[in-house]
From TrEMBL:
GO biological process, one term: oligosaccharide catabolic process
Protein name stated in the entry: Alpha-glucosidase
Family recorded in the similarity comment: Belongs to the glycosyl hydrolase 13 family.
Domain of life: Bacteria
GO molecular function: alpha-amylase activity
Taxonomic placement: Bacteria, Bacillati, Actinomycetota, Actinomycetes, Candidatus Nanopelagicales
Pfam families the record matches: Alpha-amylase (PF00128)
Length: 535
């Protein structure tokens, strides 16, 4: 039997290089820093690392403002360091996924600089979305940037350019074949250097429609598109159906071309995962049709309440929708754009949810620090660097809290992350959350993750679908068990605030917190905890 491709049920560890490990004492993590900690990464039991951008960049948006996609920013090292990182990862049988940013470049990219010089009507400007002002001097339309403020900026000769994000991130014009040609060159560049796959940033955004038409509620739409702005879900969903710059049919043509490029590397199993936050959820499956990409992120768990009905629906929907295109889902509880799961739903709940999710079919993504149970860093406004914070005059705090550097060792901040001053402060409160101190504590979150990922590999990868168990109660969270069986494992999550009996059979092999007791032939699952039983 042909074995499944490596990515199919891989556990993928997201590294935000600036916050991972600093090898040269400048206060910022770097590629040699990542390389130096690959044994730690391997010890978690993950299959691959996804590196957030490390390309040449003025770093106005954490490196998602790329000035040269085929080189390494000096703050992270150089191309030799990238090659060494890939080689060392491969030596440990870890695959490497690079983060590619096709929706926009940095305004410092040579194309944008050339466009500024060349002036209106030039072919240099056709690589971006440049338009004249309206007759009254206003921008071509009323769209609002996802980071706040207008999504148009005026240049010296009066034209405006479109930027869905920061003004330093001009959107590329994907109707221009030069743009795809350049990106294919970038894909080949990194594949030739050894990477095994790509995370495609804003994968749903490349094609824009109605660029000269106003939206009826631009501010509402911009809010609806942000994970960190709370909004009634019906209002949000209705607004999301009206977005003119995301999830247009044209994006799929691009991914069909890219798929051919990936598949031309016979034997390499190059994969790509789309960051495509689309609505309705069924639309996400289009990105993983057989001739397109391999995975698409499921963002539902980044915002889902710790509630059995909500979680049941998310899991059920994700599995069944993906099945319609013969794909498996992805699961992510945290990433660099959203509050850390331990802060969002609570420490014990975060452990329980992780163990619940690690049993599911598909690929699990773990954001570095999640395995330690890190909460969001508490920051002063003066520390913040996220363009969202800056562009909304501080109204939206932004994503820096999730990006605070990792605590590694010792009793004093910055806990071995750097010999210098970390780019964001690491709280002294994290003393018991360092890798070193968690390694010494068998009950730590780190041990839970390591044990769970080992068991997942042993019993669950390739085990097929899940069957929900009758004991699952999709009621109020204070009265809920959610359980499924898969292969030889039964997974039971108790979401309630008190211990609950269940009739799962088999031998207990792991529990996310507390102790599982037996009572009248039944198992008693502790409050806010998940347990796995082996038949
Ligand atoms: C990335 C963000 C980034 C944005 C613009 C996203 O979806 O994950 O970190 O700010 O794209 O590139």
């Amino acid at each position: 039997m042909k074995s499944a491709p490596w990515w199919k049920e891989a556990t993928i560890y997201q590294i935000y290089p600036r916050s991972f490990f600093d090898s040269n004492g400048d206060g910022e993590g770097d590629l040699p820093g990542v390389t130096s900690q690959l044994d730690y990464v391997k010890s978690l039991g993950v299959d691959a690392i996804w590196l957030s951008p490390f390309y040449t960049s003025p770093n106005k948006d954490g490196g998602y403002d790329v000035a040269n996609p085929r080189d390494v920013d000096p703050r992270f090292g150089n191309l030799e360091d990238a090659k060494e990182l890939i080689a060392q990862a491969h030596k440990r049988n870890l695959r490497v996924i690079a983060d590619i940013v096709p929706n926009h470049f940095s305004d410092q990219h040579e194309w944008f600089q050339a466009a500024l010089k060349a002036g209106r009507g030039s072919k240099e400007r056709e690589r971006f979305h440049f338009y004249d002002a309206n007759e009254d001097g206003t921008p071509p339309n009323n769209w609002i940037s996802l980071f706040g403020g207008p999504s148009w900026t005026q240049v010296a000769d009066g034209q405006f350019y479109l930027h869905l994000f920061d003004s330093s991130q001009p959107d590329l014009n994907w109707e221009n074949p030069e743009v795809n040609a350049d990106f294919e060159k970038t894909l080949r560049f990194w594949i030739d250097l050894g990477v095994d796959g790509f995370r495609i940033d804003v994968a749903h955004g490349l094609i824009k429609e109605d660029v000269l038409t106003n939206h009826s509620d631009p501010q509402g739409l911009s809010n609806a598109l942000r994970l960190d702005v709370a909004m009634d879900s019906e209002v949000r969903n209705a607004l999301l159906l009206t977005v003119p710059y995301f999830d247009r049919q044209g994006v799929h043509e691009i991914y069909r071309k890219w798929r051919k490029l990936f598949d031309s590397y016979v034997g390499r199993e190059i994969m790509a995962v789309a960051e495509a936050w689309v609505h309705p959820p069924v639309n996400a499956t289009r990105y993983v049709r057989a001739d397109e990409l391999h995975q698409v992120f499921n963002f539902d768990l980044l915002t889902a309440e710790f509630d059995s009905k909500v979680l049941f629906d998310v899991v059920e929907r994700s599995i069944s929708l993906n099945a319609t295109v013969n794909a498996l889902p992805t699961w992510a509880l945290s990433n660099h754009d959203s509050p850390r799961v331990a802060s969002r739903i609570g420490e014990e709940q975060a452990r329980a949810l992780a163990l619940f999710v690690f049993g599911l079919p598909g690929s699990a993504y773990v954001f570095a620090g999640q395995e330690l149970g890190l909460p969001d860093g508490q920051l002063q406004d003066s520390d913040r660097q996220d363009p969202t914070f800056l562009r909304t005059n501080g109204q939206i705090k932004g994503r820096d809290g999730a990006r605070v550097p990792l605590p590694w060792s010792g009793n004093t901040t910055p806990f071995g992350f750097s010999t210098g001053k970390p780019w964001l402060p690491i709280s002294q409160c994290w003393r018991d959350l360092t890798v070193e101190s968690e390694l010494a504590d068998p009950k730590s979150s780190l041990h839970l993750y390591r044990n769970a990922l080992e068991l997942r590999k042993e019993f669950l990868v390739g085990a097929g679908g899940i069957a929900w168990l009758e004991s699952s109660q999709h009621g109020a969270k204070n009265d809920s068990l959610l359980s499924y069986s898969r292969g030889s494992i039964t997974v039971v999550m108790n979401l309630s605030d008190s211990a609950k009996e269940c009739d799962a059979s088999g031998k207990l092999i792991i529990v996310s917190g507390g102790t599982v007791d037996a009572r009248d032939g039944k198992k008693v699952i502790p409050a806010r905890s998940t347990a796995w039983f082996l038949a």
